[in-house]
Amino acid sequence: MILAFVGQKGGCGKTTAALAVAAELHARGRKVLLVDADAQGSCRTWAEVAAEVGHQAPTVVGMGADLDKPHQLPTLARTYDATVIDCPPRGLAVQTAALRVADLAVVPCGPSAVDAWALGETLELVQAALNTRPELKAAVLITRKVARTAIGKGAREALASSGLPILAAELGYRVAFQEAPAAGLGPAQYAPNDPTAQEVRALTDELVHLAEQTRKGKRHA
Fold first, then answer.
1. Parallel, antiparallel or unpaired: strands 104-109 and 2-5
2. 121-149: pLDDT as tens digits
3. How many other C-beta atoms lie within 10 A of the C-beta of residue 131?
4. In terms of residue numbers, what domain contains 35?
5. Phi, psi torsion values for 195, nearest 5 degrees
6. pTM, whole model, 2 decimals?
7. Phi and psi angles of residue 167, each rounded to the nearest 5 degrees, phi first
8. Mean per-residue pLDDT of the chain
9. Could you read off the pLDDT of 32-82 as tens digits, one per residue?
10. Which of 2, 14, 110, 211 is deepest in the core (most CB within 10 A)?
11. What is the dihedral of CA 200, 205, 208, 210, to 10 degrees?
């Protein structure tokens, strides 16, 4: 199972979501590889913090635009139950490579109409990948949603024209998402009784289900 968090726009929550899902899968006993394909290296820093404070974490490796080469991720991913790729913003070559190997592409997007409008370039990139790899699945993930606001309530409406399905699970604008990395933990492990954990678990469940559907489709193709 290979999940790629993609998006040309920065600040939409790719790293937050990728880290949260990888940590949750790891907490469930899966052997997880987290690929940090962003030069900023936030996932690698998080893994270093986790090691320093003695927390268990997924295996984290850095990769670039050649991650789709046979001797790179395709070979390494076979030894893991799940692989999560955190792609950089404006990283067209890296995101294209990730879409060549992923079972499921996740496009994080903020809840406002402005966020939805900024998806254009990313949607073109994902659609091109879908055209060449019909077995690939892709979906939009609403992030940074503030409950009980007009923007929050209208998030799905604003994204309806994206052309991609919108995941039922959503990630809210919560402090735990910001504090967890500094503690070397995933958000759900940092605040296990908080709504943050419920959101991460629901997202992970949904992504696992979709990825399994993709894998079944490949076997029957």
1. parallel
2. 899 999 999 999 999 999 999 998 876 66
3. 9
4. 2-220
5. -55, -25
6. 0.92
7. -60, 145
8. 90
9. 999 999 989 999 999 999 999 999 999 999 999 999 999 999 999 999 999
10. 14
11. -110
So what's the pLDDT on residue 218? 60
Locate 127 and state its tokens: 């659609």
What count of Cα atoms within 13 Å lies in the side-chain half-sphere of residue 7?
Answer: 27
Give the pLDDT of residue 159: 79
Count of domains for the chain? 1
CA 131 to chain centre: 21
Of 30, 96, 94, 97, nearest to 59 by C-alpha is 30
Q: Decide if 204 contacts 213 (C-beta within 8 A).
A: no
Check residue 172 and give left, alpha or beta (phi > 0: left; psi -120 to 50: alpha).
beta
110/177 Cα distance (integer angstroms): 14
